[in-house]
Amino acid sequence: xxxxxxxxxxxxxxxxxxxxxxxxxxxxxxxxxxxxxxxxxxxxxxxxxxxxxxxxxxxxxxxxxxxxxxxxxxxxxxxxxxxxxxxxxxxxxxxxxxxxxxxxxxxxxxxxxxxxxxxxxxxxxxxxxxxxxxxxxxxxxxxxxxxxxxxxxxxxxxxxxxxxxxxxxxxxxxxxxxxxxxxxxxxxxxxxxxxxxxxxxxxxxxxxxxxxxxxxxxxxxxxxxxxxxxxxxxxxxxxxxxxxxxxxxxxxxxxxxxxxxxxxxxxxxxxxxxxxxxxxxxxxxxxxxxxxxxxxxxxxxxxxxxxxxxxxxxxxxxxxxxxxxxxxxxxxxxxxxxxxxxxxxxxxxxxxxxxxxxxxxxxxxxxxxxxxxxxxxxxxxxxxxxxxxxxxxxxxxxxxxxxxxxxxxxxxxxxxxxxxxxxxxxxxxxxxxxxxxxxxxxxxxxxxxxxxxxxxxxxxxxxxxxxxxxxxxxxxxxxxxxxxxxxxxxxxxxxxxxxxxxxxxxxxxxxxxxxxxxxxxx
Amino acid sequence: xxxxxxxxxxxxxxxxxxxxxxxxxxxxxxxxxxxxxxxxxxxxxxxxxxxxxxxxxxxxxxxxxxxxxxxxxxxxxxxxxxxxxxxxxxxxxxxxxxxxxxxxxxxxxxxxxxxxxxxxxxxxxxxxxxxxxxxxxxxxxxxxxxxxxxxxxxxxxxxxxxxxxxxxxxxxxxxxxxxxxxxxxxxxxxxxxxxxxxxxxxxxx
Lengths: 522, 205
What we know:
With 522 residues, chain A is mostly helical. Chain A has helices spanning 2-14, 17-35, 41-48, 57-81, 88-139, 144-161, 166-181, 206-224, 243-265, 272-285, 298-321, 327-338, 347-350, 352-383, 388-407, 410-428, 433-456, 468-493, 502-516; strands at residues 183-184, 191-192.
């Protein structure tokens, strides 16, 4: 019950008028930016980072808490009202949600998404509050080799679990690790990969990297392929959720929460797989499964709750171990580092006000989100009609401000352009963005842990795997790497009978979801 | 390839095969009928080459990492095999390995999956004119921000982007651009205490 007491203190921090204002601003801005087409939670946070430069860390993170859930919800609104989802976490929501909207039940779809997000977010945040102290108690016993192993697991998991091509995933990870290496080596004081450019000695600012890969890369990519025909935006009517809708929604909300939270909490790469699992579960358990494919409300309620629960779960490894499992969490970690704060097991001891204030703000932000979204759904829907030239001009404009204001240097603007061009080509050639961003942000931390482990072992390589925990993690990594190819081999060996059978069809649907967005949560 | 070589060979031995175009191959009757399949094959080959370009980039980055790392001095305090070189070399090897695997993948017909999205229409290729204009507007801001100040350079960036993306209501766009750039300058100065360069408008704002 340690968590509950700390949480109450966290509420004391978060409930001051000024901090409530920051939470409200965060939710409002996060939803407004997140609802814009092409802008997902990670880009929302990256673009809004400059607004927090001059804030105290606690207030900045209270605002981030609002932006985090706001941006997440904004993304689902977009995918329900537009027929093409832009971020992988909302792909599944979009399937039934858009069909519902087309049948004139858009308001009900948005409502079940909003209430489901609220319930899942609240339970998930409670789970975070209860689980974080437990994980921290375990994590303080973890040594450098254990951390290094978990980080390697995070690298391998985001690279292999997501995306259609592992080669391109690892290539992207390599690019990210390379960018992360640029700068002065903290141990020996030597410059690495700086080309003698003094501005690179401190490494590349995380804001520049995140904004460059997400915002500038995305703007260039979309601009080059801009849909000239107008989009089919579904009109939102006033029809609310009926009693029947409630009856059909509440179980999927709870089941979605139960599926999403654990998947978010393990470093397995975001909300894609759990939202798909939730969809499949609801389809199987539905009283009238023939509704699926025609706009079944269970197919919106479940995945949407899963999405938010997994977002809450993702904060567990981020806050207790300093390990991001999604692009959004990686950008948050970058923001922490910008304040000189390294999340990890000691964070709860050294910065309890910040951490518990943040967690309490997640509850508050969630409630504000529900209060804002039920009445404002039609306003958000209008934001989808913003003329595209203004939308993308705005993205480049605010990306430039953010990059310039980080260090007051034009060098960062040129760097932003170069990284933006890199982001463009990664989108063009199917290199997923998430491994790169995780590599950039987590790479230097992983190197430090590896070198610390080897210092302790006096240079013996066994120092990397001499604990039981690290050995277990390496076994999991090995299974992730060799498991799927072996499974495929076995399946092929068994013969190609029934190509359209259950598991295969499921796999195809998931592959289709990947196809929509290999940049999770951009 | 072989028939084309046969017809052009005696006439222009110095022209590289496949480069034999225009005047030499054109008048020849069979050459003309060969054109069509040849050009389609060229188009698909070009697509291959651009996929190979990714592998070349990975290879170059990997070699850069390794070469840079080899030039580092070993820290005398470090014990054992791990020093400042280890991670760059490992990352370089990873990139080189992925470059090789990617070449194999592309040669077997693997293609990178282009990213979709709400506003993305993948039915046509990249519109390089738009990209060029966008990059130009972006570069103009980077060049000008410290010379003429954000209120002007930001407006140029915003206006240039709307122009690049096909908006032609110039007067409205100029007004919006100026409101955006002056507005953000004040927002950051007064609201957040971040001083973006005022440049030429110093003293006026």
